[in-house]
Amino acid sequence: MAAKDYGVSGAPDGKGGIVAGLGMTHTPGLGNLMDVPPAEQIQRIRDGFTKVRNEMERARPDVVVAFVNDHLDMFTTQSMPSIAVAVGDTHWGPTKETEPWIQMRRAKMPGHAELGMEIYESLIRQDFDVHRIESAEFVHNVLMPKKYVWPDSDIPVVPIFINCFAPPLPNWSRAYELGRAVHQVLRKSPLRIAVVASGGIAHWPPIIPGDLQPDDPLRPRLERLHFLGRDVNDEDPGIWPDILKRETEMAANGLDWINEDWDREILKQLADADVAALTSRSHETEREAGGSGGAEMLLWVALMGAMGDSKADLVLYEVVKEFIGSVAIMSYPVREHPARKA
Predict the structure, then answer these.
(1) What's the Rg (C-alpha) of the chain?
(2) pTM for the whole thing?
(3) Is 84 inside any structural domain?
(4) What is the per-residue pLDDT for 335?
(5) For position 13, what pLDDT does the model report?
(6) Positive or negative, the Cα torsion across 206, 179, 177, 286?
């Protein structure tokens, strides 16, 4: 049964199902660089997050289902699933090496094993070959949304990972189909569920070896990072500080690392729920315009499917040159929900 039969929130009794939907960028600049861009721009960004934080508080979700990508904190080229679901009751984050710029201390993060297993089993029945893990490592993929949208709540999170970095990547239509398959579970759930996607939009993060010149000294170190993941810190503890240093250099070198036209086009297609346009995109053509980081928009396409192809509101779009990427927030309007009984 399609989402429109019950509206966005899905469950026929109006008490459960999908009660909120949010897409946002998770640029590292939202961590320790918030004092670098112009103050008036930062205020607009904070105002955008205040709006969606208020929406989340009104929705009162029991659990967040998050479409995210791993940044080589769990998966490496030695073992790289296309799609993975973390089904444990406990996750962790941030990693020790990302604490300084995410500006959060490493701690336990609640998961939701029951819903995680329900999603996992349903995806298997719907012919998705899904990798299963228990405890997940959260970095800016989940922690930037938490930091700005539910900072004072320990809402359990069920993360669904899509490979956005190590080709071959799932294609755009497969990401959408994944979202639709997840929708079949969430719309019938008695739980109140917020669905989140974080990542994108157009950017060229200095983490992909193929984006660097062959003689770039950072390139072989990145190749080791992709192969070893977090274990690379044992032999190269300066790798992540040097990646962040490279981002700072990129922001200061005067080159245009942002493709505003590409950003606005894909954000409009998402807001309009233009399924045909989004699922016809290919990585071969989009990489040049959107950068290697643009593939993280797969997560937003999955979100669109999970929200039942509903239209969305573009809350914020800001070109932040100091972040070498724009900041965007998209929200799915939902009807009023009865408060949970105490």
Answers:
(1) 19
(2) 0.92
(3) yes
(4) 55
(5) 47
(6) negative
